[in-house]
Amino acid sequence: MMQRFHLLWKEHRSLLLFLCLMVLFRSVIADWNTVPTGSMKPTILEGDRILVNKMAYDIRIPFSHRSPLKRADPARGDSVIFNSAVVDKRLVERVVGLPRDRVAMVDNHLWVNGRKLGYRDDPLNLGSSDKIEDLLGIEHRVCWLGTQTRLSSFRPLTVPPDHYLQRL
């Protein structure tokens, strides 16, 4: 058995080392994911592949969720990836509410801490209904539906400590 292992190691050492390093790299440093939904349209489309910096907010122990070193917290406007227990998918969303922020939606206009976000037409519109949203100094494109849905308006809510609210 050991002789077979040594032969395998001798003949395929480079490949085995590459595979081990790639698994470690994807666990700790960076990964790539396929976007499962169109919730980030028009910036990121369903089916797009995105590269994820796994060291943006903390340094993790490989193959675990333990983090001995925290680097930063998500900031307003960041695109984050998380596993949703509700829909049982990995989601990509934009952070709009930070811990203890007061957030509301009134007729498709987002309010954060009593300030209404600015919206203007996208100069690259090309016939779509896209807008540029000013998320308190951070601009990005959003798909403007203009129709009323159950999430077109909601009363002010306070984001709990250690939680974040993503763009709906």
From the structure above, extract its key features:
4-stranded antiparallel sheet, 168 residues, single chain
Characterise this structure.
The structure is a single chain. The chain has 168 residues and is of the alpha+beta class. It has one domain (2-166). It contains 1 helix and 14 strands, in the order αββββββββββββββ. The chain has one helix at 2-28, and strands at residues 30-34, 49-53, 58-59, 69-70, 79-84, 89-97, 102-106, 109-112, 115-116, 118-121, 130-134, 139-143, 154-158, 165-166. The strands form 5 sheets. A 4-stranded antiparallel beta sheet has the order 9-8-7-13, with no helix packed on it. Strands 5-6-14 form a 3-stranded antiparallel beta sheet, with no helix packed on it. Strands 10-11-12 form a 3-stranded antiparallel beta sheet, with no helix packed on it. The longest helix is centred in the N-terminal third of the chain and has 27 residues, at 2-28. The radius of gyration is 21 Å and the shape is elongated. The protein starts with a helix and ends with a strand. The model has no long low-confidence stretch (mean pLDDT 88).
